[in-house]
Amino acid sequence: MSSIVEILILGIIQGLTEWFPVSSSGHLTIAKEFAGWNPPVFFFVLLHVATLFVILVFFRQVIVKVLKAFVRRDFNSEEGKLGTLIIIGSIPTAVIGYAFRDTFKSFFNNLLVVGAALLATGFLLLISQTREGDGLIGHLDALLMGLAQAVAITPGVSRSGATISTGFLRKIDRKKVFDFSFLLSIPAILGAALLESSDLPLLVADSGDIFAVAVGVAASMVVGYISLKILRRVVMEEKFHWFAPYCWIVGILVIISQLY
Question: What is this structure's pTM?
């Protein structure tokens, strides 16, 4: 059983690293392994829900416009096209995520994989720094960003880092890349939560201290909203690659810890 302090720390880690391009899943895996913490599984399910809630609040105006366009069957408007691109980009994530679900799960117990994935994330952030442009998102761009999101199921590969860097490499406008990256995560997070909900009775039984879990989730939401606002500024100011050295340092330390 984890204490409320441990769950609170994990919630804060999730809130900070879920949006910054440093991999929240990688950091949670590292924290659990090195600190010897064993939070209830239900806590991580709720973190998915909290993550989804933050995105829905942050992008509420865009989401409402996209939904209205779909209700009107207006697929020629900007919002209608955006909704179509989100569907297209979700296909690789859904197919790969479901087909290799067990493989991805096994990575969460392998810190060598986490360390190597963090090194790869840092490299991707670096090579994408000068590639952003002012282009629009096309069908191929959506597919490639969806593929990047699927690969980011691996702990240590940052979802935001992979998708935003892919957009930059495709020379897409920074704001459009930022918005699309996080709007694209909505179906992925919802899908992951639904898959995990199949074991809901077991998860609830394993929930432990409900109050402690609630505190951790609340901390994750508050910190997550603030960090998402910070990340938007970082992307707009072309400083996204500044996270690369951090990924390399953490990745190298994790690998060394496993080899020696």
Answer: 0.90
